[in-house]
## 1
Amino acid sequence: MKFISSFFLIAALIIFFLWWKDSHQNQIETENNVLAVENVKLKNQLGEFKNNPAWLLNKAKDDFSNKEYWKAKEKLALIIYKYKDTKEYREARWLLKKVEVKLNPGIVEAGISGGNEGITESNSTYILKMLPYFDSNTNATYYKDRTSPRSKNENGLYLYFEREDNEAAKDLRLRIQLVTPHTFPVNNYQFNIDNQLFSFIPLKIKNDINNSVNREWSDDPLNKELYRLIAKIAYSNNTVINFNGSGGVIKWVVTQEQKEAFNNVLNAFKELGGKLDFK
């Protein structure tokens, strides 16, 4: 009899322990779920706070004071292109001009050293449309339009140029990029500009494969003929570029944004002392 009583007591204890364990585990899981939801809410609130134009402007001012001009430029550019209807927009544009002067000492009222006295902070509107990139290996800054691709993983047709220290802009170049899901060796380009055909054979077309994506690109210095081609495209009503290769033909329509970018880069090139006297 004592044995049976002990058996039932042990069984009861085991059942109670299992019930307590399950209940406690459910409570822990519930608390973890609540914490996870709260964590997501906090992250979202933090993201919204950090994207607030007032916060961005204050951080940009801190960066400017600390002479971290590139960091300031990134925050100010975000305000200008995302928060046009805010009171911070006007102040961000004003501060961005000061940042550009620090990044590009040639943009001062005295003009670029060696001439070009007409270049001032107030009238350097096209330079403010550029996306500068400083290369520490070459000690040069490269300029392209803000709308141009940021990497080789995007299709692109754009101009860019180089500038060292306070020297005049130089090495104006045309870059064409094609991204396809399969290998498509390009031999040449043909532009249909308002129903007139113009062929362009670049010096070299390079290619590689990145994450199963085929990338092909050319990068050519502007000469007189290429400059005339760019001008025709920029002022055309309709331009289609044909990529002619062993795999057939791929066609793009050149966008109005790309045409405007040509104009922006050419004018910024001149503002920074570049010469369009190609041979």
## 2
Amino acid sequence: MCAGILRSIATRCNDLRHKAIAAAGSSEVTSFDQLAPDVLLSSQQQIAEMLARVLDVQAPNAWIIKQTQDRATHILSPRQSWIYRDWQKAIGDSMLQPLDNAQRRFEVIGYHEFEARHVAGDRWLKELEAVVSDLNFEVEDPQDFRTIQVRQILNATADLIVKLDDLKLSRRIVDRGTVMRVKDYRRTTMKKTVN
């Protein structure tokens, strides 16, 4: 099957998923697997019919869709936005400070105050640990994009460390041992990517 058709199918599946989530009408429903069972079944029926049309095959009957519903729900519920969607609201809420007797109800605090509120106790490291503690980097789950995102963050951080070391500065920002370990990490990950 050509890449264009696969992209078209993926786009249509995403559209149907997002429409079902939006139709739920609740900010609590952010993933396909959080939909009510009857809505899930109806959405999966629509997706099955779309796939049958695109592939020019007979659509599966309701019994088959019901029997494969759990697997389909898993496939259609990728976990991918571990910071952007999951934490954005919480970060935004913590940036607001209520105002008394003012025209506006809230004021946005500055970065310094935001950091001062959250640095104590390494809160962000605990949040990150909660997000990545169940990841298995040896066997990636194609439905969980967090592994890819964490690898991208690690690679970007490694690139930043090497670029800082390449700057012609009067004194070193990162110690030589760290730079060497980072360069070894980059060589190792590049070999894995190539293989």
## 3
Amino acid sequence: MTLSQRQIRPLEDVILTEDKKKTVVWIIDSEQWPRATIRAELMERGFDVIGFATTKHAVAAYKHQLYAKPQIIILELFGLDADEDDISSLGRIGVPIIVLGGAVELNREIVKNSEWAATIQRPFTIGKVSDMVEELVE
């Protein structure tokens, strides 16, 4: 899947301020519905949220400045086809990353050997993820 013009918002449309209502959050999750529900909850809480199905799309969007730089990234590892380079590339963006996953995903070497703002293990609620985002913003 490629990014279409319809999916791309100009940077001028996103005004970045200290206010959490303008905090940009990126969600990377290979599954549409979990990504959409977390996105919807965060939007209800006033965040500007952009979703990606792969780490490659997120890194490309950052590299080509297709969206405003995120202040927080949520990375769901379950079902994500990401290698060490992909995960390392996300880390180089230089923002807090919340990692979501089950025991298997969270025990991968790259995950265990990296620093994360937070790690949330399954089972978790959408509220718990959203609360963590709010906590990191404050």
## 4
Amino acid sequence: MIELSSAAEAADATLAGICLTARAETVRCQVYALEESGCTARMETGALRHGEPVDLWIGALGPFRATVRLAGAGGERLAFDEPLPRAIVAHFLR
């Protein structure tokens, strides 16, 4: 069994990402608080809309289909359409 980092370490981990929107926009982001069910992404360029579907790339891995569940100044909360495999989450939190 793969052990995940502590919740505090997971919240601190920041990963480079890219969101491809349904509007054909490419938005660079910083991904943090990564979990099997979703993550929070802080957009470097552009913005996402509540309810918008996106394809998220984290580093060279993806696309992970997600839906924007919360959009605001602190970042967008993305919910993955299919849970990420535990091994992928653990890989990024090492």
